[in-house]
Q: What sequence folds into this?
């Protein structure tokens, strides 16, 4: 069974600085998808970025980018130029290609942003 | 376009009571999911459905039942609520299998069982 591990329960960053959130996963599959979701205090789950395992190029979305290391089974999220609105819980998630599309989540990292 | 709507948003139950959580999506999605979120544990899959009339167990199905009688609705039932079912429940849906498809989440239901 696949597992997702987020070893940083909490992180903090100053506004305008860069922060990296860590995620590792375990799988025997060769093809899969990885996601980072943001959950602000409103509880709404918001997709931040996704990566397809067969793509070697790291995904980027504006100030958000990932460092995908397939051999190491590592999928970290880098937030550049941090903003107060980035404060939230961040969840790393794995989705296999087994035709169920279900997600397996890590335990989350709470990000605080200080002015 | 409402997306994924969960009803109710909050509920307090007494141990042993029953209730049904409703998830409705207006995107004509095939797949739907129920997750629960507990502190320090992330989201865990309870049950899911890959189409109208089908359901399957997820990671933590005990104490819950589901039904998908209509494509747009996915119901989660608690027959006899227990304090261990105090949690935030999320529904999600996805168009179907495909690399570009993503799951859309509802706003969650906070349930307390006393």
A:
């Amino acid at each position: 069974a696949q597992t997702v591990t987020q070893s940083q329960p909490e992180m903090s960053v100053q506004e305008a600085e860069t922060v990296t959130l860590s995620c590792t996963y375990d799988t025997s599959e060769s093809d899969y998808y990885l996601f980072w979701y943001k959950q602000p205090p409103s509880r709404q789950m918001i997709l931040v970025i996704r990566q397809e395992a067969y793509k070697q190029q790291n995904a980027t979305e504006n100030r958000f980018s990932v460092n995908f290391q397939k051999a190491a089974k590592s999928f970290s999220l880098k937030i550049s130029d941090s903003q107060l609105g980035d404060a939230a819980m961040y969840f790393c998630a794995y989705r296999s290609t087994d035709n169920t599309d279900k997600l397996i989540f890590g335990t989350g990292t709470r990000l605080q942003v200080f002015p | 376009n409402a997306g994924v709507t969960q009803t109710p948003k909050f509920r307090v139950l007494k141990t042993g009571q029953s209730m049904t959580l409703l998830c409705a999506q207006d995107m004509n999605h095939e797949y739907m999911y129920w997750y629960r979120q507990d502190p320090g544990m992330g989201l865990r899959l309870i049950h899911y459905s890959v189409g109208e009339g089908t359901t399957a167990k997820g990671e933590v199905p005990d104490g819950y039942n589901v039904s998908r009688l209509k494509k747009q609705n996915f119901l989660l039932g608690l027959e006899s609520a227990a304090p261990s079912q105090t949690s935030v429940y999320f529904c999600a849906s996805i168009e179907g299998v495909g690399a570009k498809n993503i799951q859309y989440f509802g706003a969650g239901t906070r349930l307390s069982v006393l």
